[in-house]
Specification:
It comes from Prevotella multiformis DSM 16608. This is CRISPR-associated protein, TM1812 family. It contains 17 helices and ten strands. It folds into three domains: about 210 residues, SSO1389-like (Rossmann fold), CATH 3.40.50; about 70 residues, no CATH class; about 100 residues, no CATH class. An eight-stranded mixed sheet has the order 5-4-10-9-8-1-6-7, sandwiched between helices. Strands 2-3 form a two-stranded antiparallel ribbon. Helices cover about 55% and strands about 10% of the residues. It is an alpha/beta fold. Helix 2 packs across helix 4, helix 8 crosses helix 9 and helix 13 packs antiparallel against helix 17. The protein is elongated and about 100 Å long.
Length: about 425
């Protein structure tokens, strides 16, 4: 497990003086800045990556840039920083190449390995396109996603988005968040930094702001999607736990019952959500996500007196959200519950439900059951058993889904 800094490199500004030791023909440079962190720590460096490496005790640096980025200055700065001798011939060769390179140039620079060694142990340079066309953007996506191959289990990423074209850091952040979400290596983005060069003159230093809220927002987005579409509020519960433990616990309980498909307790839990529907939060995001989704569940399921109707509506919701096996199970249970209700039997009693199932399978029972209901039960139960017990069936997947929708439509005219 390592702490890795991923930083962008731009082209710098045209120098206006000779306040450094760079060979005189170089017109590009990053100005030396006093980078100030939130804890008051100040690091004076030309490159924000160098300041972040010291501040965060970085194990490895990955620099991302185009072929026009100022790689000659990276080589000069880190070589001289370590007290080593700069090879000026190589410096000028890198400078000349990068100065002339443009958006159509091939992705290579002279002495790439030499520059990487000057940055530090295991440092890596990643060259990307300008991202002008869709093809270049796609190539950049593939290049950035390939970073995962260089990462190890549980690596921690520190991301700096100070430099380069604005579009490139935006792209990188989304891709890294994607990797953090899907990678089996359990990588984690711990910090996102931006060096505010714009206010350096005003403040006398360059504040390095931490944009951790970007990561939180992405978690809220994925959490909201899971909650609204699958009833899984686990991530939302984690995000809100420090602010409101009661809301967090209720959301977890609701999610557990949704995933268990525990129809009896789930109906009670939906009603319990009313207790948190008007909760006030410190920031806008929880209220904009949690409250509307809870209200949607309450509106759909909260005021249903019939247990059979609740189960049928849940089956319809599960079908609409592509949870077809759960929908088939809920359909069957709703039919059994309805048979109990119309015959004034205790629907929660196991033996009674077994009697109802027998009555739905046979025509000789004394139970009063609609013939259309028995027909749907027998056909739907056959599919349900195949799905629940992994049995072979001659029905194709789309056929089973179409039949489910047909059964749901028919049942809405019976179970009311």
């Amino acid at each position: 497990m390592s702490k890795i800094l991923i930083s962008f490199l731009g082209t710098g500004a045209l120098k206006t003086g000779t306040g450094n030791n760079a060979p005189s023909s170089s017109e590009r440079q990053y100005r030396t800045a006093r980078y100030r962190f939130n804890n008051g720590d100040i690091k004076e460096h030309t490159f924000v990556a160098a300041a972040l490496a010291e501040h965060s005790n970085i194990d490895k640096i990955i620099l991302i840039g185009t072929v026009h980025s100022m790689w000659e200055e990276v080589y000069r700065y880190f070589t001289e920083k370590d007290g080593k001798q700069l090879d000026e011939d190589k410096y000028f060769e890198i400078l000349e190449h990068c100065n002339k390179a443009g958006h159509s140039s091939s992705l290579d620079i002279p002495y790439k390995k030499l520059i990487e060694r000057s940055i530090g142990k295991d440092a890596q340079i990643i060259l990307i396109k300008y991202g002008i066309t869709d093809e270049e953007i796609q190539e950049n996506i593939n290049t950035v996603l390939a970073i995962e191959e260089e990462l190890n289990e549980r690596d921690e990423l520190v991301v700096d988005i100070t430099h380069s074209f604005r579009s490139l850091p935006i792209l990188l952040m989304n891709l890294l968040i994607y990797l953090q979400t899907v990678s089996r290596k359990d990588i984690r983005i711990s910090h996102v930094y931006y060096g505010m060069m714009e206010v350096s003159k005003e403040l006398g230093y360059t504040p390095v702001t931490e944009l951790g809220s970007m990561l939180d927002i992405s978690k809220w987005i994925t959490g909201a999607y899971a909650f609204e579409n699958y009833g899984n509020a686990y991530q939302i519960a984690d995000l809100i736990e420090s602010e409101n433990k009661s809301v967090s616990e209720r959301l977890r309980r609701f999610s557990n019952l949704m995933n268990l498909n525990h129809l009896g307790l789930l109906q009670k839990e939906v009603k319990n959500l009313k207790a948190i529907r008007n909760t006030k939060y410190r920031s806008l995001i929880p209220g904009l996500i949690i409250t509307p989704i809870i209200n949607t569940f309450i509106e759909q399921f909260g005021d249903i007196s019939s247990h059979a109707l609740f189960q049928l509506r849940l089956a319809k919701w599960q079908c609409e959200h592509c949870n077809y096996t759960a929908a088939y199970i809920s359909v069957i249970e709703s039919i059994i519950t309805y048979a109990c209700e119309i015959n004034h039997k205790p629907w929660e009693d196991y033996e009674t439900r077994e009697e109802a199932k027998k009555a739905l399978r046979e025509n000789t029972s004394s139970w009063k059951i609609d013939a259309g209901l028995t027909d749907i039960f027998r056909k739907a139960n056959s599919v349900r058993n195949c799905l629940a017990h992994s049995l072979e069936t001659d029905k194709k997947p789309m056929r089973m889904i179409d039949l489910l929708k047909k059964y749901l439509k028919a049942l809405t005219t019976i179970i009311k």
